[in-house]
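Still learning. Show one?

>
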Amino acid sequence: MKAPARLPGLTVFLPSHNEDGNVERVVKGFLAELPRVAEKFEVVVVDDGSRDRTGEIADRLAAEDPRVLVIHHPKNLGYGGAVYSGLRSGTQPYLLLSDGDGQFDPAEMSKLTARIGDCDVVIGRRARRADNLMRRINGKAWTTLSRLLFGLRISDMDCGFKLFRRAAVEGITLHSNSAMITTELMARLAGRNARICQVDVTHLPRVAGQQTGNSPLVVVRAFKEMFLLYRDLKAARRGEKTES
């Protein structure tokens, strides 16, 4: 199936925690590019308990433009909670996840939309990751372990630039609160026999704010959630075999 020149409708959601130095630039960047890839569109800022002016700036942008929506988490739920809220947000038949730190180029949405005609999910694959060495090492280890445990043929598991058919993620229940959310989402989609494809995208250096996903506490929590998911999915498969 060939993807249409423009999608009929696209919801972009931006998980954002303490991104007051990025949120306005990122939202306006997407608003400028969205008419090229979608007939109808909206941008949702998921303010995940930010302690800076992220929520205030997002609310101002929403007041200025009805195509901008804001979800406020009263307290920080973690990246997983922000992604889960984003997946349930908006009204359009396609959903695009882009991290709110501005490290993905809105102009490259067309790389993902061009492939969605053949897929249910299109995953960005960072051709060159613009992060420090430790984040690159952790990301590679995470992807390798995810592939081994869940049989996923994905080469950049935690890339925060993904396009979904809303129908593919409707009714899906996710439990992870950490960066593990992307692995859980991909594993559960694979269990639904979703068609998943990948495309190379540019990864830009962060120009404002601080990265938090590489703290020891966050990493340990993510690995704990990974093994819990493995146990749960394995138990579910045993249950299915017993019933059959």
DSSP finds eight helices and seven strands in the chain.
